[in-house]
Amino acid sequence: PRAIYLKDYQVPTYQIEQTELRFDLSSEATRVRARLCVQRDDTTSVSEPLVLDGEALTLISVAIDGRPLDAAEYDADEHSLTLHAVPDRFWLETEVEIAPASNTALEGLYQSNGMFCTQCEPEGFRRITFYPDRPDVMSRFTTTVIGDRTTLPVLLSNGNPIDQCVIDDARHYVTWEDPHPKPAYLFALVAGNLEKREDHFTTASGRDVLLQLWVETQNLNKTEFAMNALKRSMRWDEERFGREYDLDRFMIVAVDDFNMGAMENKGLNIFNSSAVLANPETTVDMMFQRIEGIVAHEYFHNWSGNRVTCRDWFQLALKEGFTVFRDQLFSSDVNSAPVKRIEDVALLRTAQFAEDSGPTAHPVRPDHFIEITNFYTLTVYEKGAEVVRMLRNLLGWEQFRQGSDLYFDRFDGQAVRVEDFIDCMAEVSGQDLTRFMLWYAQAGTPEVTATSAYDADARCLTLSLSQRTPPTPGQTEKEPLQIPVAMGLVGADGKDLPLIMNGESLGTSTVLVMTDAEHRFVFENLDAAPVPSLLRGFSAPVKLHHALSDEQLAFLMRHDSDGFNRWDAGQQLALSELERLMAAWHADEPLVVGDRLIDTMRALITEPADDKAVLAEMLRLPSEAFIAEQQAEVHIDAIHHARRAATRALGEALYDEFAALYDRERSDAPYSPHFEQIAQRSLKNVALGYLCATGRPDALALAQAQFDDNANMTDVRAALTQLAHADDTALGEPAVRAFGERWAHDPLVMDQWFATQVSRPQPDALERVRFLMGHEAFSIKNPNRVRALIGTFVNQNLVNFHREDGQGYRLLADVVIELNRLNPDIAARMVLPLTRFRRLDPVRRAAMRGELERIRGESLSRSVFEVVEKALA
Ligand code: HT7
Ligand code: ZN
Known about the structure:
The chain is of the alpha+beta class. It contains 27 helices and 33 strands.
């Protein structure tokens, strides 16, 4: 397979003014007729052929302005249809046949539980009909869907229904018209036996919008939360970003088989059922919050992505980075802001940093790819959002909002580049953002080193900051980036000190801007040495090296005015204790937890807390993945045993305190997914985790009682996890069985059942994965099942996935080989953990490489090929 380069971009030679589609739906032989009004670009020479993309299509006929073409007038190969001589403007009519039922890749038109649905981003439309399948070709779509009246009573597409009729006893049709020109990747069609929840929204300018959420009948009782989340999102986008919805109806459809979370098709969002369906009996708190974030994300795309779209797929972060930033801001406005930041940063610092330091590292705007679906990554989405957040940090909210308004006004209805967005920000602020653009071009996580020296005579503190970005594949030399470092100085009384630099007062918190490799900042008028609190709110996606003593960390953990940095100081403190335990494990010495961590935790539990959600986060030890990310050579067993020993020791030492906390946070109030209640449950269940880590029967009895109480899925699942992860299986086995029998009818709950079992740390986990792969509720064709069973094992059970005998790697490779044939996109995502072998010990490294080479021996899809080649390079 050949790579495609950003530098080779060329403007499209033909535009499609109008697109009229007619689908005659059938599982094995759907007929798609396309009438395209084609217009030659003024600058294009007459001899330029019209080349249309097409994959896995059976061509039935081609006609120009009603005249059928004979075979000599066009070329059709596996990927395209080429028309040699065409008029300047004409109607092209094609008819193709496709087979949705055998489409296991879930791109283009496919079937899920009998329902027809589409996924066209990024290049799925070419699996539906011949078309210039690129985002800079925007067209007005009219779509007629013909289907069986009994099995497909609901026929949906983008825009508004303009015609519908019964054809005969068996069939009916509906015609939809979308008034907004759009690229093909935003096209959608759904046909099935669905029911709807309906609601209305009145926009800021007083227009009524019909809201519909379409699901299978048995899921109607899981639609209320998403509908309310949608209405919250619509209002928020008006108030925060001045963006109003632009169609008369907005529809969401829930689909069981879906490669990602959801898709922002114009006026007809299609959602993975796991990203939209929720109720208290079946759904945990974390999922409620995830659903709220995804509903918002897809809705926000209506402006950042649909009204203003990408010129080409290299610009993906233009819409994704901005939209993730917008959904993060929304979630932080409607929930606990520090906890939202903590969660987002935790994901970034474990998973995205790992990507940035591995063989698949790439810039936020890649400059080449073999398969674009491989670039829907944490780097494009999460780091892309951090880059937009840095702009907000550099410009301040007011100017950032002005820049956003200018961008939407200036480019409405256009397909644009990252530069266009940045130019708007530069224009409204007067800032030079030339160096800032490097964030889009340079891969790798910059490392910032901070040192400070206090001069008692001069009463000043000199803060030295330096930056360096390590080499990444294909990019050995890196330039300094523009980095906003939000900071403050904390005085001995725990209060922020006034910041004075060059005689100028900067308040108590400021943003230092790095543009060079090294900087020195001098703060004046300080009576004693303060503790610098740096990178507040995680103001830039960097690794900060700031050598603070355990004492200073404990001080910041209690006093920093920045909630995020208080949490982060606690994580660093815990990390330094875990490092001592890991050293002891290597030296075969007893793992004894020091008093400082225990005392700090005790203080946290017993002192009054103003934000319970933050407190719950502060009580959690750093995850195994985060600890691994800190190590030059990763020792999975040491990490696992140190963390387990620390959890148990804290549980033992603070048993009474955790028991009191558990009692204090218990509540009989009816369930609500409101963030204050979520915080309370989170705190209670953290306490339960520490209590159960001791293995004491009274702690497990608490878990059993909570399980039996069956109050809501959050509490049931937390209790089940404790029971199922206990060394003694006496309570766990019956609980797992009861849960499995109770929820056998609900695939989304069975996913939780799979995940709970395969994250069990005991050595029988791998055998359990193999066993569960044979369970009737599992199907390798469904991405949610694969993520729940295999993904959880691989990503959340590190000690068992990385078994020294290599069986974990073998299992994953077997799965990848099968998926490579069925669903290349998912296969290419699942193979990623096998590519992260460089920092492992030689035995595991060799075992992983061996499995990658076994995969390479197969006939590979382009997606898997690209990842495996990078890893073995
Ligand atoms: N913009 C959407 C991307 C997406 C996607 C990409 C590749 C394969 C399947 C997919 N489904 C959805 C989702 C989003 O970012 O909102
Ligand atoms: Zn998106």
